[in-house]
Amino acid sequence: MSWTLMNRCCLKCWHKPPDNPCPNYVQCRIKGPLCHDDPECRELRARRLNELEFGRYGVKVRVAIASCTLAVGAAEVYEAIRDYVKESGLAIDISVVGCHGLDFIDPWIEVVRKGYPPAIYANVSPEEVEDIISRYLSGDVSKAFALRYRTGNAKGEFHVPTLDELVFWRKQVRLVSSNCGLINPESIEEYVVRGGYLGLARALRMRPEEVIEEIKLAKLRGRGGAGFPTWIKWKAVKDQVSDVKYVVANAEEGDPSAFSNRLLVESDPHILVEGMIIAGYAIGASKGYVFVGTEGDLAAERLKKAIEEAKKYGLLGENILGSGFAFDIEIVQDAGRYTSGEETALLEEIEGKRSTPRVRPPYPVTKGLWGKPTVINNVETLAHAAVILRDGWDRYATIGTEKSGGTKMVSVSGSIKRPGVYEVPIGTTIRTIIEDIAGGAPEGLKLKAVEVGGPAGGFLPVSEINIPLDYDTLPKLGVAMGSGVLVAVDEHKCMVDLARQFMAFFVSESCGKCVPCRVGTKTMLSILERISSGKGSEEDLELLKELGETLKDACLCALGNGAPIPVLSSIRYFKEEFSAHIREKRCPAGICPVSREVVRYEG
Amino acid sequence: MIGHTACVGGSVSADIVLNNLKNIERKPQNLVKALRVAQEVKGYLPAEVVEAAAKHVGVPYSRAFNVATFYHLFSIEPLGKYRVFVCMGTTCYLKGNKENLQYLKSLLNIKEGQHTSSDGLFTVEEMRCLGCCSHAPVIAVYMPNGARKVIGRATPEVIQKLIDELRKEARERGWVK
Ligand SMILES: Cc1cc2nc3c(=O)[nH]c(=O)nc-3n(C[C@H](O)[C@H](O)[C@H](O)COP(=O)(O)O)c2cc1C
Ligand code: FES
Predict the structure, then answer these.
(1) What's the DSSP call for residue B3?
(2) Nearest partner of A455 among A400, A510, A519, judged by Cα
(3) Which residues in chain B have Cβ-Cβ distances shorter than 8 Å to A570?
(4) What ipTM did this prediction achieve?
(5) Which of A117, A150, A165 is the last residue before a domain boundary?
(6) CB contact under 8 A, B36 and A505
(7) What is the pLDDT of residues A418-456, one digit of tens each?
(8) What is the model's pTM?
(9) Which residues of B touch A495 (CB under 8 A)?
(10) Are A256 and B63 an interchain contact pair (Cβ–Cβ within 8 Å)?
(11) Options 3.40.50.720, 1.10.405.10, 3.20.20.140, 3.40.30.10; which CATH number does B82-172 get?
(12) How do A328-333 and B148-151 pair as beta strands?
């Protein structure tokens, strides 16, 4: 393999992990050489930077390979490009990147050439590849979906918008997702070129309590659902006296319709690795686990590579950057259970048992993995920590709300023009995300409701979506921010049916350990089935509410506590639909079995 | 081991499973990992296999059985060569996977309450969210070689084509006539 920025530039470079690591190794990669002055070493770096940007021959095709693009044929597109390059003999580099989150343009590719505008092509089919590349090489970008920037010398350039001119890009603030879709997830070098591991380098020069203070001032709250202030968790574990402590990254992402964690880990695994090392340093842990979901094969594969590379260059392992701090990361993959994402159940599974939640207290911060103090954070939370340490809290805290700093990656899907993952400041209104960014309902459809936050988040009617997406406002409306899921529901859907479907989910996923959840969800489901089949009564609604309130209070974990929320919020905002089923024995959308006769078959 | 299926059929013997477990460090925390590997290699978890996994990581059979019967990925009953998962996550449900599921089951002649086709090729299961919700409705196939294939924007036509392809592959491999 040829020289990369991660290697020594000359024999004067003395970075030799783990025995003799250079504390300035990360900064030196792009700004260096720092310990000696040598024009040749600078030149070497400049050449390599150029090569990374435009490839070895000045032309490069980036192909987005992630679970989302693969589901719609990205592998075939990749093969078509490879074949075309081979057959045509063109001097072009092909590189794999993760995904931007603009899923409505999957599968997509980007062609770059020195001196020309980098052009993104949408919904590419294998048949189109040849035409796209040859046109681009002839200087014509008119068929592109968007340009990354303009250079003013390509044909058709001014008929194609730049990403920044597009509302779904412009309204985002991409802090943690800034590398997604831009870098090769399997290249530590590309991560470092974009400022990667600078946060770690900075953290290691601070005292652990200063790192925690930084997280506190940044007002970072957990992105896994509950919005718990991250610094409190970290400090609690740091204050514990124990020879062994752990950092656990929660990459389970079990919430149906949530896909932002997957996208982040698949597209930029190093940001998670960096965040975990920082957390480990702050709390005094030397071991971390990443808990990946059942469907997380690609994420696990890329993480594994990231961990190996970080170790190879001394960013993970013993004596990281000469600080004396040691850290190691192991990957554990779920065998499929929704409860596995619950923090204590997750610990059980890492220990090799059934993923059922533990009774708390004690909390994981005092007795976590194998009884040792443990910080469990969502992967996005840890990625934010890396960004905060890189940029400084003051810059970070200017984004977001007074009580909650920064951004959140939201997963938008359902009846929507532009499904995808968008990173927005906390406090952005749901309407901005749904209508401006994601483009509202597709042609011919009208939105009725938005499912907010995941299964335990709840439904809001479209009339109420003018509210900011944050941890404090949403609960006032009976819903929660959760994992940042937004599912657009159009008028042809039935809220009773959806509430029933959610309850069926909770019934099948309840682990059975506590009675209120095990029995309560079943009872609520049978009532909902009664209503949807036209046999329900007004008392049933009262019963649902009463049971719902019981579950909210009495269950062992948030699965049971949150299970009634979709039902309660549907009753609260769509009472007339329930009434239609109960009084008129009619399903207005024609979906529930009460009106089987008029059911339409939608293929 | 009462009630737990003994090893039937399948070309993979318990020895091969054991062989694959070799790379897994022998400690109780690796039970889930060992069962994952066994499930993948054997295709399901008969008593002998669960016992082998339990022994390998040093836990009692009862605990291994307890875990093997908890997670969705594991099955103690034989499954079809191809495991077809139909996503019933919120978005896929809204976008037509309920109808796709019905279609798939009728295509494979799988009756209500059953999961595996009579030729033993396909097992159809519901699951929730493959994380490709933007391309809902989504289905996934776990292939006999351990590979996973995720298919977005599924329609009855797409499903029919998929099943035809898999059947053809199965015939070529001599799994069915
Ligand atoms: C049933 C259930 C499932 C959960 N699933 C996840 C999950 O998939 N990912 C996640 O980060 N948090 C999940 N959580 C929340 C975790 O328990 C925990 O609060 C979170 O990982 C903490 O990280 P944070 O402080 O960074 O938000 C789940 C909670 C429950 C009750
Ligand atoms: S809801 Fe089906 S892939 Fe997410």
Answers:
(1) T
(2) A510
(3) none
(4) 0.94
(5) A165
(6) no
(7) 999 999 999 999 999 999 999 999 999 999 999 999 888
(8) 0.96
(9) none
(10) no
(11) 3.40.30.10
(12) unpaired
